Each structure stands twice: as structure tokens, then as C-alpha cells.
Amino acid sequence: MRLTLVSLFIGLFILTSCKNSASSINTETAIKEKPTGYQGQQPSPIVPTVNKPVQKQWKGIWSFDSDSTFFTNDFDGARLNGVAADGNDHYTVWITAENTPINVSPWYAFKVWTENPRDITIKLSYQDSRSRYYPKISTDGIHFKSLDSTNFKAINPGEGEFGIKAVPELAELTLSIGKNPIWVSAQELYTSKRVKSWIDSLSTKPFISNYEIGKTTEKRPMHLMEINDSSLTKKALMIISRQHPPEVTGFIAMKSFIETISSDTEQAKNFREKHTVFVVPLMNPDGADNGHWRHNMGGIDLNRDWQNFNQPETKSVRDFLNKKSTDGYEFVFGADFHSTWDDIYYPLDTTVTGEKGKIVFDWIDSISDRLPQKKSNVKASDKLDPTMVSRTYFFVKHQMPAIVFELGDNTPRPFLKEKGKVAAEELMRLLLETE
Ligand SMILES: [Zn+2]
């Protein structure tokens, strides 16, 4: 016993001194190798996912200056919870969340117009949050561009590079308004209707069909696309996106990913002969149309519900996957597209997935090789219990190598599309090679 204790002490001493000397020798290298880029979020705490009350936003038109200047949130995807005229063509708008506590993802979208064309200034203020999303402007609600930086003023700018503390407390924007409404929105507006029209346009291809796999609390359909050139294949992929409504950049990359798999290239045709791709492009249509910051109409973060399945959206995908497994499908890959402070990958560590999970890392490496202009960090998780998030559930229940694919809020849109395309091409190549 004593001997063991002594050797333990000696062991500890050696370990400590090694550590010390190593750190003193390597200080210079350590500084040089300081991690760069977004390092990712901490593991998510376990939270209950039974329904919580949601405050529906009041919808209507705010009118000012003797009924000559108007603001409205009366459209799908809008969020505007209050407006005040402060005089001198200055307005303050308030943006609040559907319920709390909530992740800081302060979505906003509203329209503004006037009978007296002029420049006005709008201050964006938020409930327990800061100004995360840089304003996008549109004159038709379809085509958006970033507000010109000369018309943007950050109030009480943040500190650091990433996260809510790094963005301004408030933002002030100057707009030239006239009789035609201008849309002001946190990101491009992809409502359930717009997503469905994309699904329908792609479904004109003979090898793509779409159908409902369930309904949300507000009875919106959960649409699923099935991409498949052959009825013989039983190898399948499961792709989902937008559990969190404001995460439009993830959606844009997913869209390009799916369009590439559905394209006319030899690779895509060959791939579709051997694989079926199932896609739920909009996991949270209630949240998207109600302009939610993050939750569904049950007031719940859907990506915490893949353990207990209290919500209709997660239940419908769970039941769909179970049905397909029973039908004999083998799931060879799964991806869940999201957005955050910068591009990052959240795979499962091969210490828990073994040989099966290696393809995810090969895939990340080959995407990175082809897109050296923007480095993305990789933060692997080695926790399989509780499943809680989609990626972990996909692996634990259906043995699919899976990933949370995150794109930055401000990643340039052409790059999002390129990354979605490259990701699809590299995945098709790897999956075809593993046959
Ligand atoms: Zn997300």
C-alpha cells in the first residue's frame, strides 16, 4: 500500500515537472500556435423539452407623423414588437423573444414606408440581447442585400472577435424611405412558403418527390424531399436544416448541397443510382413564419428534444427514420445544417464512433483542401448520452456517421453556395469510393 502511494507521488511529481518544463520550453511555440478562428460553443446543458408558453407577437401597422409614416410586421417571418417616434425622423424599434430563457439570436424583420419620402434613422433595441445580425434590405421581400456600411452605426460596440459580447449593444440605421415599402431583416427571408416553392421547383425533376411527414403545433406541414434515381437502392442519407429559424446561412449552404446532389453531372447521376437522399429543409416552419429567435410553438429548442421527443417536429422525423429503417434502409450519412458566429464543424469523435465515423473527418479534410481561402475549426463531441441533439440521435439510433454543419452568420453568400457544392461533391466521391 505504502509502496503504491509512494510511487503515485513520484509519478505525480514527474508528471508535474514534465508539464512545467514542457510549458516553459514551448512558450514561444504555444504563442505562435494560439488557436485562431471560432472555437465553438461549450457542450449544451440538458434542458426539459415539455411545452412552455409562447408570446405570440401582436401583428399590425404602426402609423406616425399624422398617418404618413408606417411600420408593419404583418407578414410571415416578421418580428417587430414595438415602435416609437422620437422626433426629428428618428424611430426606436423593440425586438423581443418568443419566450425566455433563450439563446441570443435576436431575429427581426419589418417593413417601413412613407407618404413623405425622406431619410429616417431607426434604432434597433433588443430584449436581453445585443445587435447580432447586420441588417439586410430588400424592396421586394425576395432579394436582400446588406445595408450599406455608411448607413450603419454601431452603438456601444462590443469587444472580442466572436459571440454576443463582440457585437454592438444597439444599432442605428439610416434609410431612404418612400411610398414603396422597404424590408429590413436580420437575414434573408426564407418563410415556409418560400421554402416550399424551392422544394416544388426542384421536385419537377423526375427523380425528386416531396411529401408530408407530419404537422407542427400550428398545423403547418413538415415537408420531406426524397431524391432517388433507382428503386433498388437501400442506402440512404438524412439531411435536415433550420431547427433554429434565424439560421438562414446554414439553410443557404444546405440548399446548394442538395441542388448539387440533384444536378446533371455524371457524379450526381451515379450517386443517385446508389443512394437515396431524404431532406427536411425546414424543421421549424412555425418558428420561421412567426419570426422566432430560436424556438418552435411549443416554446422549445428543437435541437434539445432528440432524447425525449416531446415536440411534433422531432417526433415526425423520428417516426420517419424508424419507418425507413424497418423498410430496410441503411443510413450511411446524416447532416444537420445550422448557423453560428463563424463556420465550424461539430462531428462525433471517432473514439466513440470508431471506424464508421472516420468518413466524416475525411470529408471535412477534403472540403478544407478544396476551400483553403476560409479555414473552419472542427470541434468533435465524444458524448453519446443523452442523444438530445439530432446528430447524436442519428448515430446512436441509426448508426449514421453524422455532423452538425455550421455556417457563419456573416459568411459571404457566394462562399456559402460554393461550400455547399464542394461539400456535396466530396461526400458523393467518398461514399461512392467506400462501396
Ligand atoms: Zn442552430
TrEMBL record:
GO MF term set: metallocarboxypeptidase activity; zinc ion binding
Active site, per annotation: E406
Keyword entries, A-Z: Signal
Residue ranges occupied by any Peptidase M14 domain in the UniProt entry: 188-431
Domain of life, source organism: Bacteria
Signal peptide (UniProt feature, chain positions): 1-22
GO terms under biological process: proteolysis
Required cofactor names: Zn(2+)
InterPro entries, per the entry: Cytosolic_carboxypeptidase, Peptidase_M14
Pfam assignment, any one: Peptidase_M14
Listed PROSITE patterns: PEPTIDASE_M14, PROKAR_LIPOPROTEIN
Transcription regulation is among the record's keywords: no
Keyword Signal annotated: yes
Family: Belongs to the peptidase M14 family.
Name this polypeptide is given: Peptidase M14 domain-containing protein
